[in-house]
Design brief:
It is a single chain. The protein is 55% helix and 12% strand. The protein is mainly α. The protein folds into 2 domains: 38 residues, no CATH class; 51 residues, no CATH class. A two-stranded antiparallel sheet has the order 1-2. The protein is elongated, with a radius of gyration of 28 Å. The chain starts with 9 loop residues before the first helix and ends with a strand.
Length: 103
Amino acid sequence: MLHDRRGEELDQWLQAAFHAGIPELRAFVRKLRQDQQAIQAGLVLKWNNGMVEGHVNRLKFFKRSMAEQILISCAYESCIIECVHEPVKWGHSRSYTFQSQIA
């Protein structure tokens, strides 16, 4: 039905699924029936928003990756964490530990 775009069979499938006796499937059918016209159109029409959703997904991924990079660079530039100088017992002259300024 999905692959061949036979949306006219949707109502028959919904009835069969509802009477199958599986509670989860009945709940799924009830939700589908709330927006049955849109689902029917999606099964019949050749138009879809797949390209738009792909671009939105790509932009969201780019936004998340840039936000992570900004947070990391802020951490190194002491925007979020503070570098505190402490001597080390094992012979090194310096050691840096990071303490959060947020706390």
